[in-house]
Design goal:
Helix content: 40-55%
Largest sheet: 4 strands, antiparallel
Strand content: 15-25%
CATH class of the largest domain: Alpha Beta
Strand order of the largest sheet: 1-2-3-4
CATH superfamily of the largest domain: Calcium-transporting ATPase, cytoplasmic domain N
Shape: elongated
Oligomer: single chain
CATH architecture of the largest domain: 3-Layer(aba) Sandwich
Number of strands: 4
Order of helices and strands: EEHHEHHEHHH
Distance between the termini: 57 Å
């Protein structure tokens, strides 16, 4: 999520916040030497179950902004492929950013979420979760809402590219087949 503004000095600034994976792709690596230490802290925060975001900014020349804003307005009013055109221009402007910092907040569940999930599972209802959270955060939240237990066999599929996700799914399928074959051997004696 980004916002572009003009400050009292007449500078055009773009501020953005978002998931570390998205913001890191948009940062100027050479001008952000503290990224590693920030990522270390984000990992620690995620391990504690906190939701994390990065915040970054950049200055934009007025000429560049005027040119970009005209093209963005055209894309926003397009009758065909509007969303695609807008996303291309957003990606174009959200580059070479400088890291401001990171946030970490506790994301509290609504009352009774944990007990409701426990009752659903006890009733034999299968519960699945699909999340865009960092794996560490998702696992901690899973435990806090009784979705995950120590006894539960977990399969985590993670990847950014289609091929990586496909490999993870295939590996998970192998784990599941192995698990069920071993249970069958034990029960058949």
């Amino acid at each position: 999520m980004s916002v572009i503004l003009e400050n009292e000095k007449g500078e055009v600034l773009l501020y953005t916040k978002g998931a570390d994976s998205m913001i890191l792709e948009r940062m100027d690596k050479a001008k952000n030497p503290d990224t590693d230490s920030t990522m270390k802290y984000l990992s620690e925060f995620a391990d504690e179950g906190l939701r994390t975001l990065l915040i970054a900014y950049k200055k934009i020349s007025k000429d560049k902004y005027i040119d970009w804003s005209k093209r963005y307005l055209e894309a926003a009013t397009a009758t065909e492929n509007k969303q695609e055109k807008m996303e291309i221009l957003q990606d174009e402007i959200e580059t070479d950013m400088l890291l401001i910092g990171a946030t970490a907040i506790e994301d509290k569940l609504q009352d009774e979420v944990g007990s409701t999930i426990a009752f659903l599972k006890k009733a034999g209802i299968k519960v699945w979760v699909l999340t865009g959270d960092k794996i560490e955060t998702a696992i901690n939240i899973g435990f806090s809402c009784n979705l995950l237990t120590k006894e539960l066999k977990r399969i985590i599929i993670d990847g950014k590219e289609k091929a990586d996700v496909q490999k993870a799914i295939e590996a998970a399928q192998q784990k599941v087949h192995f698990f069920f074959r071993s249970i069958m051997k034990i029960s058949l004696g």
